[in-house]
Amino acid sequence: MGVKVELAAHTVDTFPPSPPRTVGNSHAGTDDEQEEEDNTPPTPPEERLDQLLKSYTLPPQSTPTQVLAEDLKTPDHRVNRDPRLIRLTGVHPFNVEPPLTELYDEGFLTSENLHYVRNHGSVPHCTDDESLDWTFAVDGLVEKPFTITVRDLIETCDQFTYPVTLVCAGNRRKEQNVVRKSKGFSWGAAGLSTALWTGVPIGALLRMAKPKSAAKYVCFEGADKLPNGYYGTSVKLNWCLDENRGIMVAHKMNGQPLHPDHGKPVRIIIPGQIGGRSVKWLKKITVTAEPSDNWYHIYDNRVLPTTVSPDASVNLPDVWKDERYAIYDLNVNSAICYPRHDERLLLATAPETYKVRGYAYGGGGKRITRVEVTLNKGKSWLLADIHYPEDDYRRAPDGDTLYGGSTDMWWRETSFCWCFWEMSIPVADLGAADDIMIRAMDEGMMVQPRDMYWSVLGMMNNPWFRVVVHKDQGSLRFEHPTQPALMPGGWMERVK
Amino acid sequence: MGVKVELAAHTVDTFPPSPPRTVGNSHAGTDDEQEEEDNTPPTPPEERLDQLLKSYTLPPQSTPTQVLAEDLKTPDHRVNRDPRLIRLTGVHPFNVEPPLTELYDEGFLTSENLHYVRNHGSVPHCTDDESLDWTFAVDGLVEKPFTITVRDLIETCDQFTYPVTLVCAGNRRKEQNVVRKSKGFSWGAAGLSTALWTGVPIGALLRMAKPKSAAKYVCFEGADKLPNGYYGTSVKLNWCLDENRGIMVAHKMNGQPLHPDHGKPVRIIIPGQIGGRSVKWLKKITVTAEPSDNWYHIYDNRVLPTTVSPDASVNLPDVWKDERYAIYDLNVNSAICYPRHDERLLLATAPETYKVRGYAYGGGGKRITRVEVTLNKGKSWLLADIHYPEDDYRRAPDGDTLYGGSTDMWWRETSFCWCFWEMSIPVADLGAADDIMIRAMDEGMMVQPRDMYWSVLGMMNNPWFRVVVHKDQGSLRFEHPTQPALMPGGWMERVK
């Protein structure tokens, strides 16, 4: 788990409680927190003192990494990586998730080492020396198009820092592939990670460019040149202009310049939406009247109707282009992290209760309001405890800074991150059960479905997560549904 | 179905595409559409001409109503009503839904006659003469509290008109009550209706009052005095300040002053949230740091964990007060309207195909992206056609007026209303099926669950809607799950 810091106490008497459009005391480009105090009196109202002194978690230290042997023969031969990451698409391109247990053990924030990576091709090359001179354009249906360097982004714009959980739309896809092969590769349940991102709200850049009246969408394009062109996608202009959504052009991850796999030197971060919209190695922000016509916008990150087969989909360009099937907000999902896959519990020495634990997340800013556990296949449910570590950031006073950006959370009630749930269960009850299944519900009272919604790209897989309980030789052995990539194991392969 | 009107063609060149905070050419207090044209040139860009000439549907005519005999002995003895409405809680208080078929047949917009009603007690009395002098307060954690008359609301504030579907959180509750009695009365599937509402964005009033820094919630209180005080509830301040959400203080419904059952003379309208937050007969808008402590805010409109029984709930005040269980955004839901309950299809004279039809809605502005139909209990699904009549309003040019308010839809991509779906199915296939089941999915890729989430108040019931197909004597007979109130009928009563 990460380091905890105590926050200085400030008074909070700024109006409005709706998002600040500009923040006066952010410290662009500095890494020190609270370098300059603001001028408000240091004595907070007594009733808030206790609240303001709460602490938040900082990221775990990254362990040293190096260029791995298997990367030497690829175009990514300059990129340092962590050998624990599990490769999902062979050696290259680099698509990886961490081991689920190690991800969970890092806690709320994920180090850059273990953060999942979704690369479509090789990593665009940008040295430390080149980073600040990297440019991207803001153009299209705007009155004042401009090109800006990363240096100017940092030095001339107000900076913000807040935690965001990124999730690949393919998280848990392996389960779909076991049922029926989809067009996507096999993510386990660790295709998500949370980091502290520092950057500039995209609304600030768009307002500088002044979108024209016909403007409705914002297209992003990266520097990663692929067989079907540069990777690109779009979201709605209204979302970009809405501070509540927190869409950001980010240049730091966990207080450091971006790692090459995470978009060095600059990328988009979209809380609550699938990772595929958070374009890395950003080169263009283009305002348009229509959604992006980029190949990857149309033929990736969609949930087609379940009846469309992979074969049939080839001849259905109009179905692919139907924006109703494009995925933006995440759907509700959850997984059991402990007991982990193949964990054994010796009954002779086991404590009376076992703490079942895992994560859950909602989409589009929606919070998880309950996680329920069943030991009898859904006939009855038990209510787990939920913990939202991101709430600690909301207790940071307005104007507090972290990694050179204001901690922009105090006014937000929307959720940007995953949460953790746990439940202590008598070991005797676990021993009497065939399986442990969980489901989460969001604040819109939408609950994870019992059954899988299989689709041609295998995305947004979110049925109840099921861990099977085996009894053998005086112990309980737990089995997860799948293992990521081509790794064997998991009850789904046995029952298919 | 309602009347269609042709819109005048305007150019649309106003910036921003994000919501206009003020609109210059609204015509407060007038009922005439387009009474004054704005000054923009009448020739639209050619490529938009076709789009701008599209028409939208106006409300169906209300048929004459009168005070009904059964109301004469109640405190509502002055209120005109439609005898077709089905009473759900005896004679008084007045809680009614229309017959599902008649509701569907009215089309996108519902007349005030057939609009569902949820009253907790007797209707506060307000004559036509008193309406304009009715006052409500804007107070609490604000710098400038004020009291305003309905007259001033109409004459001094910018007015808007748009369609909103209101849905009772208890819609479809009868299904829950058949499985296990909840604490709520038995709504069928017609606890929802759509009207054109005219009024003032609540954000405008709140900005006039200037909320203080600790402000986080907005409480509403009506004039309906009940056993546990005046009816009241709260929503978040950020939502009220967000123009995308469209929360309105309304004084007209379908172009007429509000009917007594619908809040005469003034009420709250909250698109995308449950009807229980749209307080009628508005007397107070109070800004607070905490959610409302009104009895009805705490002990109504909640989805408690499914394990809490009605008996146990009595001793769980902390569970009731847990805001995680309060319902704001609606969840995804849908129903089959045709075939209607007990409809018969003579096979000898039936056409080759039958058009199965119904409604669907999402919550919190989310659109329905697909409705799927299964004739084999979910083994395979068919994709229905979806139609969103509210989109016609988006084609009205910016500044166009209706019932004295700007048609404030052109910039909105969020959904405020129900949609309609249909699918032509070979009669032979219907005859071969045991049942017709449907499920809808929203743009967050959340799908209606197969199984009911029973809860102590029986709210937000949204499992797949199932109509049973009976074959007898050369005909098909269709059976809905339930009939509203204490009306017998429906397959759920037979199989319980």
Description of the structure:
- 2 copies of one chain form a homodimer.
- With 496 residues, chain A is α+β, with helices and mostly antiparallel strands.
- The first copy, chain A, folds into 2 domains: 54-325, Alpha-Beta Complex (Sulfite Oxidase, Chain A, domain 2), CATH 3.90.420; 333-495, Immunoglobulin-like, CATH 2.60.40.650.
- In chain A, 15% of the residues lie in helices and 29% in strands.
- Chain A is built from 13 helices and 29 strands.
- In chain A, the strands form 7 sheets. In chain A, strands 10, 11, 14, 15, 16, 24 and 25 form a 7-stranded mixed beta sheet that branches.
- The model of chain A is unreliable at 1-54 (pLDDT under 50).
Distance between the termini of chain A: 38 Å
Main pleated-sheet profile of chain A: 7 strands, mixed
Largest interface: A-B, 57 and 58 residues
Per the CATH scheme, the topology name of the largest domain in chain A is: Sulfite Oxidase, Chain A, domain 2
Q: What is the CATH superfamily of the largest domain in chain A?
A: Oxidoreductase, molybdopterin-binding domain
CATH architecture annotation name of the largest domain in chain A: Alpha-Beta Complex
Regarding CATH, which class of the largest domain in chain A?
Alpha Beta
Count the strands of chain A?
A: 29
Low-pLDDT stretches of chain A are 1-54
Q: What are the main properties of this structure?
A:
homodimer; 496 residues; alpha+beta; Sulfite Oxidase, Chain A, domain 2; Immunoglobulin-like; six-stranded antiparallel beta sheet; 29% strand; globular; disordered N terminus
